[in-house]
Every structure is written in structure tokens, then in C-alpha cells.
Amino acid sequence: MGAIDDSESYIQTVNLGSALYYSVTALCCYDYCLTLGDEIQYIWASKRTLSVLLFCGFRYPAVFNTIFVVLGANAFPSWQSEYRSDHEGSEDFVLI
Predict the structure, then answer these.
(1) Residue of 84, 65, 63, 83 whose CA lies nearest to 73
(2) How far apart are CA 4 and CA 30, in angstroms?
(3) Mean pLDDT on 72-84
(4) Where are the extended beta strands (E) located within 39-89?
(5) What's the domain count of the chain?
(6) Segment 56-77, tens digit of pLDDT
(7) What pTM did the predictor assign?
(8) By C-alpha distance, which of 31, 16, 22, 28 is closest to 73?
(9) Are strands 90-95 and 81-87 parallel, antiparallel or unpaired?
(10) For residue 63, what are the domain limits?
């Protein structure tokens, strides 16, 4: 029964980690949506200064990274994963 308890504990840990990740991602997206009006008014309409370039240089890569990570999180199996059966009667999903 120790293996079953370990598996359940692992699954709970993974689920908690996923829930926390998606919660933080949702909070960041919510913050972006809340501040978009001010950003349009104060950043997009202003002259291109060093502070505007720094703002855009830090803000947009983070936004795009969040979008790409969320869209690709569970969409497709990884090219690094392999489904194989090493032992008779047992099949494992192995990450290489």
C-alpha cells in the first residue's frame, strides 16, 4: 500500500502545483486587463522615451510568455516523452 499512498501524494502535489500556477496566471491576466486603459492613455500616447521602452520591454515579453505557456501547457504531448513498456504486464509513461 505504500506505493499507492506515494502515488496519491504525488498526484495531489502535482494538482496543487497546477492549481497555484493557473491561479497566479489568472491574477496576472486580470491585472493586465485592469491596467490596459491606463497603459493606452499614458504609455501608447506618449513619446518614445527610455522609460516607455523599458516598460514595454519588461511588460510584453511576460504577457506573451504567459499566453504561450497557458496555450501549450496541456495541448500536445511533448516530443521528449515516450510511452513504453519495459516490464511484462506494466506500462509506464516515461519522461526522458
Answers:
(1) 65
(2) 39
(3) 60
(4) 81-87
(5) 1
(6) 999 889 888 888 877 776 666 6
(7) 0.56
(8) 22
(9) antiparallel
(10) 2-95
- Collapsing DSSP to helix, strand or coil, 27 comes out as helix
Q: Provide the residue type at 75 as one letter.
A: A
Is the per-residue pLDDT at 3 higher than 80? no
Q: Is the dihedral of CA 4, 6, 7, 13 positive or negative?
A: positive
**Residues in the chain, overall count:** 96
pLDDT attached to residue 50:
95
Cell of 26: 489568472
Of the listed ranges 20-24, 25-29, 51-55, 86-90, the least confidently predicted one is 86-90
Cα(90)–Cα(84) distance, integer angstroms? 9
